[in-house]
Each structure stands twice: as structure tokens, then as C-alpha cells.
């Protein structure tokens, strides 16, 4: 499995991207610029939170519960206090009066149960890994050593691991108030009519296994105070939201709290959180008057970074014999874990409107119950609700095709919204502004060589090849650009979905763009510079983008939900427009012309039909000098804008995956993968390409490799990367990517967002391919992740239970050894 | 991921290292040899091991390197996986070692991890123990009391337990050359490129005269099918005299397949998140067949 780096290929890629980078015209937007932030990020010559050293800094280590559910009966910290270098040792009791409760900003129903969530457990622990005590020491090694000297007595309580069991009568309770957090319902159209006498009904259950977000940079926090004000550096995606929430949680007045997200190495939703460690770091620095730092280890992270997915889905489709869908009914159980964190209960709701996918239908019915278990809370993870929805509908549509003996692409064609029908209001009530599913699908089929692969599949089936070939289709859309504030309000979310930008013209004509988005790997510094360069006619190099510090960027809603470009990028454009309006007024004054006669092109304001003009740089200097301004004109060209979108954006695309399944070992190998995405207009094709690649890899991770596994006591077994497998480049095929461009009509840039598309699309494409390969064996599903052992067992079980004659290709003796009940852990 | 405190000793020579180990031994200290650190450091950092001192031999000039010594090749314990893999002596004279080493982890680990460390660690999931067992290697170990030799069949005592006495250092391994007529293959099944073998099979096969002949002799050992690497004696015996013609070519039963179906005999496969015992037994049979076919083909 060792791949050799092919130097020729690398050179070719570089040449290719340079070619792309060459401006076809004067425009920056659309140009494949290499990211200006990358040199410092990849060389590490930058500020990661863990690099920060402050005078007198102390180090925090947390003692974490080894049990999923227990009462804390005694904590003795005296021996730890006596350890060398130890400055303080605290248990939850010490913080009980000041630590408050970690916030949940999305109470999805009126009667939702939101249990108290102490940052450090006081009397009871409810998941393995919950902090029960902490050591503050003069270095991190001493802090770690002293943890071993803390004595804690636990009285074990029953763990609640399984959602179905959690809801059963008499189940042990995670919280006194019960294990059902909420039930949220949504219905459109007459679902009973859709299912009544339906010629075909497909009913399936899918398991969205629990995932552990694995950002390159582990979480880290540095908190400091001068007695008056507090500064928190955190590896977070949401410095602005965090500041508000921390002020509310800790009682530190908002104006005396500054939150800084320095360079942040990835988040994928896991750093869209107000964490226990952030709160406790502030409380510790308040107590000790010294700066404190905490950086998690990878295994600590696997335990206590909020987890993702973890839903049980039941989906039912009612359809006509020709494959046309009448209605879809969905029942979900969503594992909340032990507490509701920032947006935990809202995650399934983000999927609730996506189960109709790209298809037309008359009725839809959705119910979701949030369930407490004694596990780490779940929350946003790349795609957040939408990958789950897309998986269920795309898997089920494939099942419908199989049931009807139709090609899976054909069934989709018979149901999808055609390009003439946009804007289209779906059964879920969303208005898809634009799209062209036909174009993306046709392009993908051509690139993939669909017909040739189907022919090879038939051949392999006929010759009973032990290595079978499967073809997986996924035609997805997603709602991005979170979000219109009024829609968030109608869903009971605690805040709005706008974004802010300030554009500052410096005296020398250079530009500072201040954005409320908080990049942590997405390349906003490059993309926002491209937008600004075009809008103001300044060189790309003359733009600096500032972000991630509430003292510099005072307003923002941060980065998640593929929102930054669609909302924040539009705010940048609109602030630039305001700067231009001011510059035009000043130019008119200086040129003694009417503002209506001033034309703007290539950075110059000219009197129409003359060569006479002023560059934007000259105007910036003139505004700075302020010697000769129009009456009442403030001496500044700066402008700000806060943009609140009217609608979501709806990227879409078609992903096709060919998988070879070795039926003897159960191993699945992705042979080819084609992704044709439509993310609307593209600001930077290289960035889009990077997001698509990473997204596909992560979706493949869910399909084939990743799962947080707990034993029956609720202990997490996948605490290291040798047990929680994430794919590396060596495990992935070359991706073939292409785009169709159907601009969004809901924003002036025509952009739709690309951060989550790959992850949303790829998981069902891969699993559909594996199931497709194994259909002759009587296999209808393989639970994720499709591990070799699980695939092997599924084949064997289908063989032993399937009707005679459906056993698929017979195999030689070695492969024919059927499993018994003697099994592994899964 | 911070290890508990330990003393650190970096001797300047092998003799000094032996002395340091001997002294620690006498003082009753729990001392460990540190070579490439690719297995030991993770154990320390996860606080699964608490040695009181480490004797770091990682930068010693010897025993390092690969030497052709007539009937065998001597591989110095401190030779890194990367050096082993690139050595033309290894590739030409003991190719099974090269084939297995190339599957170990990733380039970063292969540049630090050592041949000796891989074997002294006695991890049955490691790729090299099964190779050493299949090839009947001889382990050369040294202490203040002098040098002794341990055959591979006696070296792997139990899970992470080699036949090294306290105070002993592995200086190198004699890998017998198997002469002309032998074919080799290492078949590793793992879930990601960087992960350890779920099951691995080291195979050496010698066919009789003439193309597509019969198996004269075979040596098969399994990775991760028990607390130690496992020699598949039953398969070796059953393969002797088996016709190597491609299966089904003349309607005759595939004797190679039948022989390989005995691969899991005598194994005690572990259970972990990558596979239960039953699946591992099944894999052992499938992979042994593939390894034998590849080695003899
Ligand atoms: C991410 C990762 C993936 C890996 N994947 C694989 C894999 O797929 N296959 C595989 O085979 N291995 C794998 N390894 C392990 C790797 O091969 C190590 O190099 C090897 O196991 C240990 O060699 P080392 O020199 O690093 O030994 P160390 O870690 O330094 O020591 C290991 C043990 O051997 C002892 N020891 C070392 N040298 C001597 C000596 N000369 N005399 C006496 N005792 C000694 C030490 O005391 C210790 O107990 C992986 C390691 C990592 C970190």
C-alpha cells in the first residue's frame, strides 16, 4: 500500500495550477490564486494557540472520569497539591458557585429538557472523559504527573449507551428529568394519502455512526487577565459567539473580555463550541491572576471534542411503479450524548429540510427525538445534519431503483427538479433558487465512463469474480450560507445569521478588510482579497484581511455551515461598494463634475468621456489629508456592511464512485471517483478544489473507516488513531473533479458555498457502490463504516438467509467459511 | 500524552550500554533499552509503561548495517527499517525481509524505527517477527556476561515478551539465505496504509524442477494470529508435494487451497476493533493461499 510520490506528476500539477493562475482577463475573482496564508501556515511560522508564551504562564491538566456514569463520593487533592511545581488543584466543588452552565443556544422546542451542564462535574459524571478535577502547575509535565496523585472515589451508576434502550420504560436515567430531550415534528402535504395504496413502499433503517472530528490542530486555550480585562486565546471557529457566550456564562462583562482565535488548524464544526476548558481557563486565570494554558492531547481530544452524527434513521418512501416518488416519511433518533451543548439539538433540524433532496414529491413527514445517553455530547460536524439526510435519501432512492429494476440514475431523473423549474419551492418549504441537476449528472457520467463500468460489472458478475465491482450514485443538494436571521428565529435558534465586514482605505492606498468570519483553513485571506481587489480595482497584494480577534473585528458570526463566502464574502463586497460610493463623491468634487458623470474602471474614477480622473489610491490620500473635501464629507472612505441573506444557498452536484469489493476478505477499494459540483460562481478554483478533495476524503472516512466505539459500560474504545482510523492520502484514490456553474440568484456574487459539499455527497456514493457490488449476493445494506469484517459478515449472512438461488457467485473453500456467532467487538 | 518521569542514560558504546543495563539490573531498577522509540515512546506517553530509566542506544555507531556472511546475512539491530528496505544485499539475498519491511507503517516511522527494536518488542502484530520465524533466524544478544544466540523459534515467548534476560541487548540477527529455487511473499492485510496488520502471512516456497511443478518445501508464518507470531506447520506439511498448477486448470482439486485452509490451526487470534478471532482465522486461510500462490508463482 505504499505510494511513491511521483515527481513528474507533482511538477505537472504545479504547472497546471500556474496555468490556472494566469489571469484570463483583469479579474481576480475566478482566478486560481495560491493562498497567501499558506506559507506561514505550512511552515508553522505563525501563532497557533499552543505557541503562545506569556510571562509567568501556568499550565493546566484535567483529570477526567474513567467512568461513563457515576456519583463522585470523594475527591482528595492533598497529595497532588504537594507535588513539585503544583500551584493549585481544584475539583468541581471549588467552582460550583461560579462556573455556571455551558450554554445551549438552540432550544428546538418549548418543552425541551436542557439539563444543567457544569464545566467541571460536581457530584455526578455523565460521560467518560468529563473533567472532575484539574491541576495547575509551572509546566505541563508536572501538571500531568500530579494528576496521578488525585484520589477520586466513584459510586458507579448504570451507563446508558443505546438510544433505543434509553427510551424504554424503566431505563436508567442520564438526568433526573428523563432521557427524552425533545421531540420535534415537521409535516407538509398529505403523507397518509401518499402512502395509501402506494404501489411501492421502501422502508429502511440506517445507522449514522458516531464520528470524532479530527482537526489537525488539537484544541488549545490560553487565558490571561490584568485584573481588569480578560483575554482568551482559543483554537476556536467562533471568537465572536464565544465572547458573548462566555460573558453570559462567567459573568465577566462583555466589554472586558477579548477573545482571539489566532491561526486555527481546522475545526470541521468541532470548534463551533463553548467548551468546558475555555470557561475553566477563564475562571482559573481570574482566581490565580496568572496566565494559564491548556492544550489537549490527541486521546484527550478523542474523548472530549464534541462528537458528530450518531443518529438512527428510519426512512420510508412511497412511490409509483415508474419510480416517481409520492412522499417521504422520516423518523429519527438523535443521540445528544449527556448534555446539550451549543447547537446539539439543532443538528438534526439542519437535516430536516433536506430529506427530499433534489426530488419533487407531494408529502413529507419528519419526526426527530433527541435522546440523552452517557456519552460525550454530539454537535456540529462537517455538514451537520445534512450529510445524514443526504445519506438516507440517496441510499433509499438506490433501493427504490433496485426494487423496480431501474438504473439508479434513471430513477433520479424521473424525480428531480428540472433546470427550467427553478426557482422551486420544495415539499419541505425551501425555495431552491437555481440549479441544473441534468448538466452536472451528464458531465459526471461522461467523466466516469458509466456505461463501460456497468459492462465490466456485468462481466465480473457473469464470471463470478471474487472481486466484484459496484457503482454508486449520489446526487445531492444542501442548504448552505447559514443563514437568514428570520429563519433561524423561526427555528428558535438563539442568534442571527448575518455577517459583518469593514473596509478601511489606508492613506497610501492599501486596504484593510476586517471580516467577522473566522477562517481556520479555508483561505479567507486570499478569497476576500480577490473580491476586494476586483471591487476596488486595487492590486491583490495591496489587501490585508484581518479576522479572529474581537478587539480588531468587533462584530461577526464566525465560520461554519458553508456560510463564510455566501454571507461574509457578500458583506465584504457590499462594504467595498460603499467605499466606492464615497470615493466617487470625492472624485466628483475634486474633478468638479457631477457624481453621475463619474465612471469607475480599473481602480480609477474618471469623468465620462475624458481621460481626467483620480485613482482610488489618490482619493484615499485626499480623504486622509482632508484638505479639500465636499461640504459635510467626513474625512474617510472607510465603510462597513452587515449582510443578512434572504435565503439559503443550494450547492448541488453528482458524485459517482466505483468500488471493488473483495468478497473473500471483505475489503473495499475505491477504484475511481468522479465529483461534479455546482457551487455557483467560483472566487478561487484552487480553494474550491481543496475543499472538495478534503470533503470527499472525510465522507469516505465515514463510509469506510471512522467510528467512535463504546463498550457496554460506555467507555470509548477508539481513543487513539490506531483504533479510530482516518484515511490518509495513501488510502484514497485520485479524485476526478469538475464543476458546472449555475450562479446563485440570491446574492450578488452568485456563490453558494463549498465547505461541506464533498462530505455530504461522498458517503452515500461509496456505500451505494458497495451495496451495488453485492446485490447479487442478496445484500441490501452494509452498516457504516463498511469495514472488511462487516462486509464479509454481511455477505455471509445474506447467503445464509437469502432465498435459494440468490446466493451469488459461489466461492472457493477458503472464502466460503461462514462466520458463526463467535465474533469480534462488532 | 506526557510520559511519567524517568532517568535518561546515553552510553557512548555498546559495552557501556551493557554496563549501564547491568548496573541498573543489580540496583533492581526497571530499565529499558531505547532504540528508535517508535514502539516504546507511545507506550510511555500513554502511561502504559513506567520504566525508571531508559538506556538510549539509538545513536550508537554499531551494531548497525547489513553484511553478507556467506550462508547468512547479518542485520545489525540498529539498522533502520528504511536502511533495511533499501539495502541491495537484503533485497537480493533475503528478499522476504525487504518485502515485509516495506509494509511497515510509513516513511517517517521507517526512518526512525529499527530492525532490532521491531523484533525485541516482540509484538505479534509487527511484520518482522513472523518473517524471522519463517526464515529460522538466529538472534544474537549480548550482556556484561558475554554473547549468546537464540533461535527464532525460542525468541518470541509471549505477547511483548522476548527471550531476552534483563540486561541483555539484541545486537543483530542472522538471516539464513535460502538459496536458489525459493520464492517469497509477504501478504499483509490492513485497514489503512499506516495501520498494523490485521493478519499478515510470510511465505517462502520452493518448487520442484520444471515450470508449474510441485511444492518441495514451504515456510509459512503468521502475523497477529496469537500472542506470538505463529508458524503454520500444518500448512507447510500439507503443501509438500502439492501440485502448483493454477487451480481448476485440469479439474483436479486445488491442493494448495486445501493446504492453506489449515493456516489457522494452532493459532489463538486476538480480538480487537479491526477483527474478531473468527474473521482473523478466515483471513489467515485466504491470505495464506494468496501468499503461497504469489511466492511460488
Ligand atoms: C504509527 C506507527 C505505525 C507502525 N506500524 C507498524 C507496522 O505496520 N508494522 C510493524 O512491524 N511495526 C510498526 N510500527 C512499529 C515500528 O516498526 C517500530 O520501529 C518497531 O516496533 C520498534 O523499533 P524501535 O527501534 O522504534 O524500538 P523502540 O521503540 O525503541 O523499542 C521497542 C522495544 O524494544 C526494545 N529494544 C529496542 N531495541 C533493542 C535492542 N537492540 N535490544 C534489546 N531491546 C531493544 C525496547 O526496550 C522496547 O521494549 C509502527 C510504529 C508507529 C509509531
UniProtKB/TrEMBL annotation, chain A:
GO terms for molecular function: iron ion binding; oxidoreductase activity. SUPFAM superfamilies: CO dehydrogenase molybdoprotein N-domain-like, Molybdenum cofactor-binding domain. InterPro entries: Ald_Oxase/Xan_DH_a/b, Ald_Oxase/Xan_DH_a/b_sf, Ald_Oxase/xanthine_DH-like, AldOxase/xan_DH_MoCoBD1, AldOxase/xan_DH_MoCoBD2, AldOxase/xan_DH_Mopterin-bd_sf. Residues 43-158 form the Aldehyde oxidase/xanthine dehydrogenase a/b hammerhead domain. It holds the Pfam family MoCoBD_2. The keyword Oxidoreductase applies. Residues 809-826 have a biased composition (Low complexity). It comes from the Bacteria. Residues 799-826 are annotated as: Disordered. Keywords: Molybdenum, Oxidoreductase. The keyword Plastid does not apply. This is Carbon-monoxide dehydrogenase large subunit. It comes from Streptosporangium carneum.
UniProtKB/TrEMBL annotation, chain B:
The keyword Cytoplasm does not apply. The keyword Oxidoreductase applies. Gene3D superfamilies: 3.30.465.10, CO dehydrogenase flavoprotein, C-terminal domain, Uridine Diphospho-n-acetylenolpyruvylglucosamine Reductase, domain 2. Transmembrane segments: none annotated. Pfam families: CO_deh_flav_C (PF03450), FAD_binding_5 (PF00941). InterPro entries: CO_DH_flav_C (IPR005107), CO_DH_flav_C_dom_sf (IPR036683), Diverse_Substr_Oxidored (IPR051312), FAD-bd_PCMH (IPR016166), FAD-bd_PCMH-like_sf (IPR036318), FAD-bd_PCMH_sub1 (IPR016167), FAD-bd_PCMH_sub2 (IPR016169), Mopterin_DH_FAD-bd (IPR002346). One of its GO terms (molecular function) is FAD binding. Keywords: FAD, Flavoprotein, Oxidoreductase. Residues 1-180 form the FAD-binding PCMH-type domain. PANTHER family: XANTHINE DEHYDROGENASE SUBUNIT C-RELATED (PTHR42659:SF2). This is Carbon-monoxide dehydrogenase medium subunit. The gene is cutM.
